[in-house]
Amino acid sequence: MRRTYRTLYRLGIVPWDQPGAPAPLVDLLEGPAALPPAQALDLGCGTGRQAHYLAAHGWSVTAVDYTPEAITAARRDHAHGDVVWRVADVTEPGAVDPDGRLAGATSLLLDNGCLHGVPVGRRTGWAATVSTLAAPGAVLLVRAEQHRRRAIGPRGIDESEITALLAHRWRPLVTVEPTWFSYALLPATPLPSQDTVGDPTAPAVEPADRGDPGDLVDPGEMEG
Ligand SMILES: C[S@@+](CC[C@H](N)C(=O)[O-])C[C@H]1O[C@@H](n2cnc3c(N)ncnc32)[C@H](O)[C@@H]1O
Question: In whole angstroms, what is the distance from residue 54 CA to residue 51 CA?
Fold first, then answer.
């Protein structure tokens, strides 16, 4: 996929690169329950239109893409605004946030069309990135096409697979539009202290909203 993206950007074949911000993102920034500007991260930012939109609304933005041609275009087209542009693979938390500045401090994470093309075996890396960098109460907004078996194009991912990837750490929010999914970071679940482990009189510690283990995705089943 990486080589394909490089070729497409070089040839200027970028059908996803449309003017205007997508409605679910506009709603988060300008709707009745608009989030206050803080730190945002755009994963697979392409030529940076949405990162630029976030910055124009007062957000501090880090925008990453592993295709150098996309980041070069983003830097050229959006020279102004509070955006850090970075060539990095979203499945590597340390590459996305090399100085640790974003860790636990990112209030809004956007993935518009990146995750659904990430190889299945690397998707837990994507989940590690979003969970490591998210601030308490962070919102994650994902646009992803469904899983499909096609010779070309992104592999796709189903909503249940995204939810399974994010299990234990994120709570699904109301789905705003088909192909758009949003999640809120759950508060960290405290581990039982040594004093209460094995103490039958201690109150049970219920993991918060763990979901059904049966939902977990077997990567082997998803290949092919
Ligand atoms: C369909 S485009 C969407 C671009 C942008 N989000 C937009 O809406 O215009 C997907 C982007 O994700 C990038 N991408 C795909 N896999 C990636 C990965 N593992 N790490 C970083 N970027 C990735 C591609 O280079 C491409 O720019």
Answer: 5
Cα–ligand 1 centroid distance for 46 (angstroms): 5
Helices (H) and strands (E) in the chain, counts: 8, 7
How far does residue 211's CA lie from ligand 1's centre (Å)? Answer: 29
Is pLDDT at 221 greater than 60 in this prediction?
A: no
Range of the domain at 128: 22-188
Centre of ligand 1 from the C-alpha of residue 210, in Å? 30
Considering the entire predicted model, what is its pTM?
0.85
128 located within any domain: yes
Taking alpha carbons only, the member of 200, 168, 203, 202 closest to residue 186 is: 168
Instruction: Provide the number of structural domains found in the chain.
Output: 1
pLDDT of 154 higher than 70: yes
Q: Which of 4, 26, 65, 123 to mutate to test ligand 1, by most ligand atoms within 8 A of the CB atom?
A: 65
**Does any domain span residue 17?**
no
- The CATH number that applies at residue 56 is 3.40.50.150
Each residue's pLDDT tens digit, 52-70: 999 999 999 999 999 999 9
pLDDT of 201 over the 70 cut: no
Domain annotation covers residue 79: yes
Q: Does residue 205 form part of some domain?
A: no
Round to whole Å and give the CA distance between 167 and 114. Answer: 19
